[in-house]
Amino acid sequence: WKDYRDANSDKILLKFDDYRAVMRCVEEVRKHPVAGDLLMAPGYTERCYQAVIDGMVCRCKPDKLCQWRDKTIVVDLKTTTDTTPNKFVKSIERFGYHRQEYFYRKVLSAPENAIHVDAFVFVAVNDTEPHCVDCYELDQEWLDFARDEVEPALADLKRRTDQNDWKSATENCVIRVSPPSYMKFKGQYSL
């Protein structure tokens, strides 16, 4: 394996079992009536887009930017342990998918690209069998949360870049932390 890996260092190498698992995921996504159509629609796959926003070069690389049913759609493929809505919504918050969508829309709509995105679809696929597939679109409330997080982060990045200031905002203090509320009731309830 080591010799083969070294001889093919410019390639992504998978062990056979990993390859089979990936191909089963791919097959389930292709069979899904919406996800399969979106990923096979005409468009661009993993194309990098760039825009200057507030003097900073910003980039995004959608998994797919396509035309589907006369609309411009960004498709983002996510592997997850559970595609059900009540679980995937936690992934959205935990991994910041709402911030990703907001930022991608911002870069794509900038004058350099002038792409109006009609919809942004997250295709969620279970990374273990049976590789369930579900498609999600975030509502405006998610994008409002994202705006309130991304815009100050971009402003802070701009300020730090302009001033070459990369110090922690809390470097001159000690921060007291408390356990999260879910830990306070851990073990107190049972079925």
Describe the SSE topology:
Blueprint lengths: L1 H6 L8 H16 L3 H6 L2 E3 L3 E5 L2 E5 L3 E5 L2 E10 L4 H11 L1 H13 L9 E8 L6 E4 L3 H24 L17 H4 L7
Parallel strand pairs: 5-6
Antiparallel strand pairs: 1-4, 2-3, 4-5, 6-7
Q: What would the average pLDDT be, to the nearest integer? A: 92
Distance between the termini: 49 Å
Q: Count of DSSP helices?
A: 7
Largest sheet: 5 strands, mixed
Structural class: alpha+beta
Q: Regions with pLDDT < 50 over 5+ consecutive residues?
A: none
- Lateral arrangement of strands in the main beta sheet: 1-4-5-6-7
Radius of gyration: 21 Å
Beta-strand portion reads: 15-25%
Total strands: the figure is 7
Described by the principal axes of the CA atoms, the overall outline is globular
**N-to-C series of helices and strands:** HHHEEEEEHHEEHH
- The percent of residues in helical segments reads 40-55%
Structure description:
42% of the residues lie in helices and 21% in strands. The protein has seven helices and seven strands. Strand 6 and strand 7 form a beta hairpin. The radius of gyration is 21 Å and the shape is globular.
Top keywords for this entry?
191 residues, alpha+beta, 5-stranded mixed sheet, two-stranded antiparallel ribbon
